[in-house]
Amino acid sequence: MTTPSAPIVSMDVRHVGGGAAVVDIRGDVTATCEEPLMAAYEQASTGGTQRLVLNFTGLEYMNSSGIGMIVTLLVRANRQRQKLAAYGLTDHYRQIFELTRLDEAIGIFDTESAALAPASAS
């Protein structure tokens, strides 16, 4: 019998200047990714980060618990008066963000440069 493995997810943080940080998400976003997601948020929030961009181009799978993790992240960002944006979502996950109305609270963009553009910060 095999034991369940650790969540297959990695989250790397890049500070890109202008008060912005990008979290590169690779793998599965589920309830088991709470610790790496919140650790990435803490790392991204250092140095007066005002805009946090989630890069979903490496996303393999996200379930309802993963959506819940994104909502938790959104609440934390709102408390710190940080703007949250995302890019790289497949059509399937874009539709889920629309159905859950997350797209009203998180800016959804096609590219990193669009998500980081000053005009998108409002």
Task: Write a compact overview of the structure shown.
The chain has helices spanning 34-44, 64-79, 91-99, 112-116, and strands at 9-17, 20-29, 51-62, 83-87, 107-109. By secondary structure, the chain is α/β, with parallel strands linked by helices. The protein has a domain at 39-111: Transcription Regulator spoIIAA (2-Layer Sandwich), CATH 3.30.750.
Describe the structure.
The protein is α/β, with parallel strands linked by helices. It has a domain at 39-111: STAS domain (Transcription Regulator spoIIAA). Helices cover 34% and strands 32% of the residues. Strands 1-2-3-4-5 form a five-stranded mixed sheet. The radius of gyration is 14 Å and the shape is globular. The protein starts with 8 loop residues before the first strand and ends in a 6-residue tail after the last helix.
Tell me the layout of helices and strands.
Elements: E1 9-17, E2 20-29, H1 34-44, E3 51-62, H2 64-79, E4 83-87, H3 91-99, E5 107-109, H4 112-116
